[in-house]
Design goal:
Blueprint (H helix, E strand, L loop, with lengths): L2 H5 L3 H7 L6 E3 L2 E3 L4 E5 L6 E6 L3 H16 L8 H17 L1 H12 L3 H22 L6 E2 L6 E9 L2 E5 L5 H14 L3 E5 L6 H13 L6 E3 L4 H10 L5 E5 L2 H13 L4 E5 L5 E4 L6 H13 L11 E5 H15 L20 H16 L3 E4 L3 E2 L7 E2 L2 E4 L6 H4 L6 E7 L2 H9 L3 E2 L1 E5 L3 H10 L4 E4 L14 E2 L16 E9 L3
Parallel strand pairs: 7-8, 7-10, 8-9, 10-11, 12-13, 12-20, 13-18, 17-18, 20-21
Antiparallel strand pairs: 1-2, 3-4, 5-6, 6-23, 14-17, 15-16, 19-22
Helix pairs in contact: 3-9, 4-6, 4-8, 5-6, 6-7, 11-12
């Protein structure tokens, strides 16, 4: 959408016209079932509406709907080319609804409208379209058996997939799972976060409009300990695709063990290390990249480079450049076009970030910028961009995922020390190496234990490359053709050939 046109729109007026529907979406229709809860916007505290508080009964209805549609084959038995048409129509409808979806994302979880409109919605549509385009190009295999047999190796839809997605990128995370799961022919029960349910519910309506058969996609909003737990424990769910905290990821594995040993694919937290060596020609560019990546989405990103490791000889100058870059990320009302940062998702998250700032100060880190909540008079949950220096890797702000606009600078002397500090973390989602020594760049990238290592950049991204981590950052991968592996079963069909 044209940026000039966007600046001329009164987004506050458009937001005021929205009437988000918080009812569950089961068996192809909105349903008012059981209890509900009030949902307020973190931007200014306004009441957005009431959302269905689904529990085990509602989840059971949704799973039964998904199971019926899978078993009768109304979607799974369609040819891949037919599923492609529906998914590409779905993607087109997402783009047509871009303003509504972007407003829902902004109002629901606080991110700047511009980011939602220019990043989240287009990326979500591209994901759906890409998997639609890919699915009729995925081939099986023929095993190299003897001449008396033909062994076919094929991938089949798994069945009913439970998708549990977080509140920081509600639309994107939902599509990262819906794209491959639906393309493969599965039926899905989607559980959005109670902090950001509205865009997922709207997605289900758009999918139905695109031609997805009723009951193939069901959305059950509610709390994690109620709807999420019921979904993960349900014996008719064949796999869980979960994105969220490591703590809840452990619960997902436990629920699988207590129920039917369903597959669990966890994409969890991160504490990504951003290594800057003194042989990089432009440390200021590295500082700008670190600030842009960390403070994007208010720091509420699992891959945010929250640990910046800088070689001692350039550390002081680099930190000054980082602080200067961070000054440009001022929190503003998310409906203000061009806001550098919006609001944190709610008051609880704001208090959590404040507690980490307090812990950093108590443990001896040097606060170089920010550290305070702001715009309290707005009724929203806003936090200043915050930079810590003189951080030790054993401090809480270096060990634990803060999920807010807080970045820490750590210093190292040698390459070996940098690698050791970077890998001394329970997480392993992403990392970065900034060096113009090609041998060092390769050497360090190989040594870092992370699912993705960026070299002389950060956050470059495409649907064609997998996303995920190692260690307590989870297992499995979102995006790319590899994501189809999570939602399909590998089958061998052995055909004996008589001489």
């Amino acid at each position: 959408m044209n940026s000039t046109l966007c600046t001329e729109i009164d987004w506050h007026v458009r937001a005021g016209r929205l009437q988000p529907d918080g009812r569950a979406f089961i068996a192809g229709e909105r349903q008012s079932l059981g209890a509900s809860f009030a949902k307020h916007s973190p931007l200014d505290g306004r009441l957005l509406g009431h959302v269905a508080r689904c529990g085990s009964a509602e989840v059971d209805l949704a799973v039964r709907s998904a199971r019926q549609t899978f078993d009768d084959g109304r979607w799974a038995r369609q040819a891949p080319a037919q599923r492609k048409v529906v998914l590409q129509r779905f993607a087109a409808l997402v783009l047509e609804a871009r303003e509504e979806l972007a407003l829902l994302e902004c109002l629901d979880m606080g991110k700047p409208l511009r980011n939602a409109l220019q990043v989240d919605v287009p990326a979500s549509a591209r994901c759906l379209a890409w998997y639609g385009e890919a699915i009729d190009k995925v081939y099986g295999e023929v095993a190299p058996t003897g001449a008396d047999a033909l062994a076919l190796i094929t991938r089949e839809a798994m069945g009913v997939i439970g998708c549990v997605v977080p509140w920081n990128y509600p639309l994107i995370m939902a599509c990262w799972k819906l794209g491959p799961a639906l393309a493969a022919g599965n039926s899905v029960v989607l559980k959005p976060s109670e902090k950001s349910p509205f865009s997922a519910l709207r997605l289900a309506e758009l999918a139905l409009q695109a031609g997805l058969p009723a009951g193939v996609l069901n959305v059950v909003p509610g709390y994690g300990h109620e709807a999420g737990e019921a979904l993960a424990l349900h014996p008719e769910v064949d796999a869980i695709g979960f994105t969220g905290s490591t703590r809840v990821g452990r619960c997902m594995l436990e629920y699988a063990g207590r129920s039917n040993l369903k597959r669990v694919y966890n994409e969890l937290g991160g504490k990504s290390a951003f290594l800057v060596f003194n042989d990089h020609a432009d440390p200021a560019a590295a500082a700008r990249a670190a600030a842009a990546s960390l403070f994007f989405n208010q720091g509420e990103s699992c891959n945010a480079p929250s640990r910046v490791l800088v070689q001692e000889s350039i550390a002081e100058a680099f930190t000054e450049q980082l602080v200067e870059a961070a000054r440009g990320f001022r929190p503003e009302h998310g409906l203000t076009w061009g806001a550098p940062m919006g609001a944190l998702v709610d008051e609880a998250q704001l208090k959590s970030v404040e507690s980490y700032v307090g812990a950093g100060l108590q443990e001896g880190a040097r606060l170089r910028l920010g550290g305070q909540r702001c715009h309290a008079e707005s009724g929203g949950s806003y936090m200043q961009a915050t930079v810590f220096d003189q951080v030790d890797n054993q401090m809480r702000i270096a060990r634990e995922e803060i999920f807010g606009p807080v970045i820490s600078v750590l210093r190292f002397k040698t390459e070996a020390e940098a690698i050791a500090i970077a890998n001394d973390s329970p997480y392993g989602l992403q990392a970065a190496v900034w060096s113009h020594n090609i041998n060092r760049a390769h050497r360090v990238a190989r040594a870092l234990r992370a699912g993705t290592v960026h070299v002389n950049q950060y956050d470059e991204d495409d649907i064609t490359v997998p996303f995920g981590g190692v260690k307590q950052s989870g297992n499995g991968r979102d995006k790319s053709l590899h994501a189809l592996e999570k939602y399909t079963e590998l089958k061998t069909t052995w055909i004996q050939i008589d001489a």
